[in-house]
Amino acid sequence: MSLLLRSLPSSTRFLLYLQNFEPVKMGVKKEDGSLSKIMPSEEQDILDEMDIKVKKYLRGDDANFEALRDKKLKGQLAAREELYGKSAKAAAKVEKNTVLYDMNLNVAYAKRGGGYLEAEGIEKTWRIKQEAIVREVDISSSKNQYDIVLPDLGPYTLDFTSSGRYMAVAGRKGHLAIIDMMNMGLIKELQVYHCLKLYTYIYNRDGTELHCLKEHGAVSKLQFLKNHFLLASINKFGQLHYQDVTTGLMVGNIRTGLGGSDVMQVNPFNNVVALGHSNGSVTMWKPTSAAPLVKMLTHYGPVSALSFHSNGHLMATAGTDRKIKIWDLRKFEVLQTLPGHVKTLDFSQKGLLATSTGSFVQILGDFSGSQNYSRYMTHSIAKGYQIRKVLFRPYEDVLGLGHSMGWSSILIPGSGEPNFDSWVANPFETPKQRREKEVWSLLDKLPPETIMLDPKKIGNLRPPTRRKEKPSKEEREAEMEAAVADAKNSVSTKRKTKGRSKPSRRAKKMQEAVERAKRPFLEQQKQEEELSKTKKQKISELPKSLQRFVSKKAASCFC
Amino acid sequence: MKVKVISRSTDEFTRERSNDLQRVFRNFDPSLRTQEKAVEYVRALNAAKMEKIFARPFVGAMDGHIDSVSCMAKNPNHLKGIFSGSMDGGMLLLCCLVTVNIRLWDIASRRTICQFPGHQGAVRGLTASTDGRILVSCGTDCTVRLWNVPLATGMESDDSSDNSAKQLAAYVWKNAFWAVDHQCDGNLFATAGAQVDIWDHNRSQPVNSFEWGKDTVISVRFNPGEPNVLATSASDRSIAIYDLRMSSPTTKLIMRTRTNSISWNPMEPMNFTAFLLLEILDNVWWWSTVLLLHDIVIGGSAFCLHFGIAIYMDNGQANEDCSCYSYDARKLDEAKCVHKDHVSAVMDIDYSPTGREFVTGSYDRTIRIFQYNGGHSREIYHTKRMQRVFCVKFSCDGSYVISGSDDTNLRLWKANASEQLGVLLPRERKNHEYREAVKNRYKHLPEVKRIVRHRHLPKPIFKASALRRIMIDAERKKDERRRAHSAPGSIPRESIRKKRIIKEIE
């Protein structure tokens, strides 16, 4: 862009500059129209790329001011819209530039490239072994590839904090550990013996038991909604509980009525909890309603695993019918069906999908950009180990595996977000910052009512509801005639066996068809007449002196 | 095979020395921030609640007068100084004491720093010259007195109680005075009484006097932009505009109610001409009118007048109309805006130096702050001990409001109730700005709106406003019925903006 600018006369340069800073929608149109002739294709590409990025930061289309009559409001909204456009542009620019550092504020708007794995020649990415990758990467990254073998207390499951700094692992037989992933230091390890009591317990960092949550019952799966401070659990009777962990209040207690389930996942986009059931359906829930928001049949057979993409538009499900399905959650349609028997699934921050069964892990990736997932990497751990949980570590190119003999970690290049935001999740957080953030996040604690399918709806106007207008008498008659004509046409004039297509029979048949077509219209008419009659009766029941006070509007609709 | 994985060295992301600031990294990707609208909404709600928690507008009271405070004047040259005059003349005359009914206060320490003894009766008008050197006072003892204002530098150190200033001159005249105002950038001042008199500092008699009708003139105010123009209100319910360069008055407006006091708005023009808003407030104890005057100055000689009128009406038993109307000065026949909310007569009105809002003090014992174009007040101030408010002033920096009331006290209020006083750190300021912005963004949502709008009202005011609402509704209903039962068009709809004006005389 800058090269081009220098070659242009100053007046044109100014124009270009202006066009660059116009509200985005207009800018796109103009650039397409007038600038395409001047631009070399490379410049055009850069502009196109920029537009895509700007679109990401715009969070939706511009407001439509056409219908607005208030000029003042129009002006205010237009100014605001322009500001949005500018800020989106600035954000996109930051993303495009390599590293921007603001000395005054000590803030780095860093853009670091993410990881990648590219095959050369006849190589295939899925044939590349972990050992080969470890040989190529730097020492600190190679430390992220390891196996911990603890054969006695397994199978293990694991979870990361949102910044990816800490990991909690839990063995089936009560072995709990918290590990600092930065230096692989063990923060706390404890052995609990009441894991057979089947209650939910809360421990602090020192391993002290703080709470026992008996109301949840025999919980099979737990999820934490960190914006709402809600602990969601599903027990083996199919009851979904939501408990506010700051006040201890049971916010929601919902009977799903679909039996016990151990497939539960929170959609990070809108914090709706999704459950996979043994009848092959997936249901989505919020704490404030007893009925599911969505109930969809995903598989013929029990659902075995479920995961959400971080942008909230994609869901992957796996069933015992040996299929993996990728769903578009905006249309609730299947985008892709892949074969494969899968026990556990996970989406990474950059959209890679890890699937695993037995001791085999497969990573699927979407490289065409059109939500078409294909094989990216594969990995097998030692034979006989049963993988129970796969989980990508946030902000790192690492996949954690919890299995029957301990846990392992492998390198998956290109899975993590390379640029973290210190105010969202900071892997290098100091204890003081953590304390500060805890207070702020408690201040920003969202009420449970904000969980909804479309979280962008908050603060928007409800679209005006159009009342259905009654069809006029002529319209209704025309509709009936059309239906009758249809019915007449549909009666076949084919000759049939002897005696069955006598003219009298054919006439009768025709009449029957016409009557059938007319019936719903006539019935409706009759109903309305009856309704008006009862209303008239009500009026006539009034004493005569009061009848004149019945509103004219009501009276007119009776006749 | 080409491979790269994310690898972060700790040195790069943490500070080098413990004296350094912590490093901050930003990524504005929307997918990292889930439910951002919900978070913003919660923050807006918290901001609204916090605003309510920190809404402590009362700063302090200035106690010293021994009768109700009747008038105040700002010192245009010194931010911390305010003059106040009280009505304690008559009572003390009996005791044969020298009355001290004008005081100069230091707002910061809320103490009297200078006293001006001399008036033998109630002081009705106070004003300071533009340079802040000379104070002019007038009162019911038929005298106009000029005082030398002590210099600002010596003010703070003086602590003794009897630092009284000497008067420069005392001019005795034929009639009692009701109000006085000093010309901007000039040597003249005007007094209101039986007629409007124009005085020079150095002459013992008025240099000019105007009369239009026989009734008493009760308030006078010079236009701050055009020094030769002044507006007056009289007890014959008229508002008159005079030009000193002409021998006769320019315009006169007759209203249904009497105007009590006048104040010009120093508003910036939107087009190339200089706009000034003049505001006139009228009150005859129970009946009051507020009038806003607009004035365009073109060049210096030719100008046309623009007005806005606001009327407050109230009487002891039954109210008719308690709303306030502001007018475009170019069109005197119709109000520009109607400001409603007070439940009793408005006694005084003063514009903020920004011209975007004004403060009114009322006989209903409350102070309200209005937007210059807002139909309802944005703020109401009251305390248990504050009695009828006779005078209000915005401070010269627009951040405080000072009120003088019947209970002999001056009270100091913040103009913005929840504003944090003192020096703000940049991060603090940014936080305030963010809170203000989110609150503004979600102000239309019912929960936020409810919290932001809520004000606690004293019971009498709450009841009076409910009663007023009923009465206005009844009147409107009756009007509608009368209209419905008359021949179409025989009872024209009268705009509420035009209702209070009887006629305009050129």
Task: Describe what you observe in this structure.
Chain A: Residues 509-541 have a biased composition (Basic and acidic residues). The complex is a heterodimer of chains A (559) and B (506). Chain A has 559 residues and is of the alpha+beta class. Chain A is built from twelve helices and 29 strands. A four-stranded antiparallel beta sheet of chain A has the order 4-29-28-27. A four-stranded antiparallel beta sheet of chain A has the order 5-6-7-8, with no helix packed on it. In chain A, α4 packs across α5 and α9 (473-490) packs antiparallel against α10. The longest helix of chain A is centred in the last third of the chain and has 39 residues, at 503-541. The model of chain A is unreliable at 1-37 and 555-559 (pLDDT under 50). Chain B has a single domain (59-416), classed as YVTN repeat-like/Quinoprotein amine dehydrogenase (Methylamine Dehydrogenase, Chain H, 7 Propeller). In chain B, α2 (36-53) runs parallel beside α6. The radius of gyration of chain B is 27 Å and the shape is globular. The N and C termini of chain B lie far apart (94 Å). At the A-B interface, α5, β2, β3 and α6 of A face β1, β2 and α2 of B. β2 (107-110) of chain A pairs parallel with β2 (24-25) of chain B.
